[in-house]
Amino acid sequence: MADRRQVLALCIGALAARVARAQDAAARIPRIGFLISETAADQASRIDALRAGLREHGYVDGRTVTIVFRSAEGNYERLPELAAELVALKVDVLVAFGIKALVAASRATTTIPIVIPATSSDPVAMGLVRSFARPGGNITGSTTFGPEVMAKRLQILKEAMPGAARVAILVNPANASFAPTLQQMNPVAAAARVTLTRFDVPSAADLDRAFAAMAKARMDAVVIQDDTLFGGSNAQAIAARASAQRMPAVGSKALAEAGGTIGYGGTDFELYRRGAYFIDRILKGAKPADLPIEQATRFELVINMKAAKALGLRIPAAMALRADRVID
User: Fold this and answer.
1) How far apart are CA 299 and CA 249, in angstroms?
2) Closest to 278 in 3D by CA, of 105, 134, 62, 93
3) Which pairing describes strands 195-200 and 221-224: parallel, antiparallel, or unpaired?
4) Rounded to 10 degrees, what is the CA torsion of 99, 101, 106, 108?
5) I need a labelling partner for 305 at 20 to 30 A (CA). Which of 66, 69, 147, 286 fits?
6) Co-location of 195 and 305 in the same domain
7) pTM for this model (two decimals)
8) DSSP for 2-20?
9) 294-295 and 262-266: which strand pairing?
10) Could you give the number of structural domains in the chain?
11) pLDDT tens, 180-229?
12) Domain of 235?
């Protein structure tokens, strides 16, 4: 009987030890927080790209890593609260989807590593990091030269539409990067003899008002700021409204794919997939301060020829030839 009790005690002890080890292992599964300014649905392609990159590094949600979502659903006033929630959950890495999320995250913590897979803003000019080569704080990731890209979009528009004189800029006022963007665009506008007019769109509900104001001001065309608000389903809404106003629209590649006239910019899918590299390095012990902020090197020009023809806009042959993709 004593032997049976000893064997039972050993079995129970072994089982308890196994359970404890399993609990310890579960406790060690890294937590990654996703802070999203818009809806998760509108950021689905970016989320999928980041998940794909994480899988390539061996991170599978629910098995080797836990992903915690917090989405402001377009209500940017909630971002500080949501960032604080992720900090309270003690996530190992906080991923910011866009500059608005990054600003909120940076104010919520100076210790938890923050990764921004792609931002069109200049984090150095905004004082979020010390330099691209050595960020020096808890933020790292990639940038897509947003101000320069916007200036290039204006150049492309003028090439496609030489007669354009009054050009609207669609802006999310919650995006703090517009000042350096305008600094890049102004010299291009002056050289092209174009007058730029800013139209603020704080939310998708303001699109109709903004386009009505553009029509009243007799804008010839519109250039769209890189912002999470203007992606996803809102890209289709912008393209439809620009078409209804018979205004050529130049923005991201997603805009051209959604029916806008011209798209120019970085490759979001590649950049968000690459974002997993930073997460992996951090989870393996690297410090964000020592991980250089990468700068996008590949930009694509997409021309929606169908949309252009519907507007009576003749795209120069040279532009069509150098386009990475033409949508007929």
Assistant:
1) 18
2) 93
3) unpaired
4) 160
5) 147
6) yes
7) 0.85
8) HHHHHHHHHHHHHHHHHHH
9) unpaired
10) 2
11) 889 999 999 999 999 999 999 999 999 999 999 999 999 999 999 999 99
12) 146-266+300-327
